[in-house]
Amino acid sequence: MPSPPGVLDGVALFESFTPDEREAVAARGRVLELPTGTVLMREGDEADALYVLLDGTVRVMRADAVGNPVEVGFRLTGECFGEMALIDGGLRSATVVAASRVRVFELERALFMEVMTRAPDLMSKLLRELSRKIRDVSERVVREDLERRTRAAETELARHRAITQVVTGLAHEINTPLGICVTAASHLQELAESEAASLREPAALLVGNLDRAAGLVQAFTAIAACHHAEPLETLDILELAEQTAAMFAMERPDAGILIRVDVDGPRPWVGYRAHLERALHQLFANAAAHAYPTGSGDGVVEVTVDSDALDGKPAWRLTVRDSGVGIPERELPKLTDAFYTTARGRGHKGLGLTIAFNTATGPLAGRMQVDSAPGAGTTVTITVPQEL
What we know:
Blueprint: H1 19-26, E1 30-34, E2 39-41, E3 49-55, E4 58-63, E5 69-75, E6 80-81, E7 95-98, E8 102-108, H2 109-118, H3 120-194, H4 200-225, E9 233-236, H5 237-251, E10 257-261, E11 268-271, H6 273-291, E12 299-310, E13 313-322, H7 352-361, E14 367-372, E15 378-385
Parallel strand pairs: 10-12
Antiparallel strand pairs: 1-8, 2-7, 3-6, 3-8, 4-5, 4-7, 9-11, 12-13, 13-15, 14-15
Helix pairs in contact: 2-3, 3-4, 5-6, 6-7
């Protein structure tokens, strides 16, 4: 049916047009009344018309990776869809189906272009409106993506906090009885050495496994310490890294790695000394155990501190880089999971990176990222605010 007068009045896309200009465009279109379920356009088809929804509701759908239709939104009375067809005549980016009985204004591209050739100023007005609409959509997409990423990050942190609570309670409950068992086992081992040779092997086995259990409890305690309050201090983060590297070398002379800290100037930091020391210690131990597992003694770990930004505020980017065996890409998403390790056969518990991650993202209020590839070494980056 022909378009009634004023059919485009109040439509945002044609808001900058004068009443006469809107009537000139409306005269080229037609009004359609369609039942529920009518497909007005199909994804992938050639775009040849614009639609203005005069009454009713339509569903907008797109195909997912395997071709199944997924609803991505609705269009309500007064809204347009298919407007890019007026400009490029490309392919439809979505399928639109009537969700109720609808009345729509249809404007074919060929007829619209006839109007444009007679009044070129209309095209510039239309382009301005389309640009504004695209900008609004782009901003909304960016905002929604940011919100999605924030929700994902909060979920991940909540998961790690839940793990922390579990292991903290477990460590507290078994610490005392385990200590008694370790003492008793050591005594049995001494008796076996002097009086009962047949008990030496089982006594040694008992002591070894109790020592392993005690090591787990210590690791659990370290995870719990990630959330303990520490006094804030004004420090040089680069100097702190150097001191931690020196302390690790003294405590672990068998680690087989040389830690080099790039000291090229002060890096003032207001933060928690103990927490950062703990995270760095775990990263050094992880490099010694996994980057250079043969313990040849020629492994090198490079540490640098550079300026960065975190959530719009000044931050320090602390990088711990090795040139060891690297990590397969499929393993990277699981590295900070509690008890995940690729070297359990060599006695590793899979808690080192969990402790480092919980510390960096918890009390240090920062971020931690692991980048690696087989044969190309591993880089762990911790970014923390310059002032907590």
